[in-house]
Amino acid sequence: MASMPGPADEYVNRVREEIKTLRGYFNSQLRSYRAIRAVAIVSASLVPVLATWSEFPRLGLAALGAVVALAEVFQGLFQLRKSALNAMKTTNTLERQLNKYLTGVDPYGGTQQEAFTRFAR
Known about the structure:
The chain has helices spanning 7-51, 58-78, 80-103, 112-120. By secondary structure, the protein is an all-alpha fold. The chain has one domain. Helix 1 (7-51) runs antiparallel to helix 2. The longest helix has 45 residues, at 7-51. 7% of the residues are buried.
């Protein structure tokens, strides 16, 4: 008969799920950051090129400038890169502590109950 998972096993599984969730958040935020930066770079690069073409409407140049400004505002408002990096730092810390706990490395030495109590704090 298989043994029932204890509180320590359930807690470890929850930590693993949190790590997985944070990785997904990191990837999503980083993709959004890169997309917004790419739009801003391409738009900003097109302005001087299109400005030399006399037939290109001034309204089009203004629209490209507005796209660049909005992209920077969104980046500043949502802090996509910063929140992605914070999620990755948290993920790395959780993984490091989980690995130490699972291998019984200091500070998670001693009895299983003592190690779990330290890990859960």
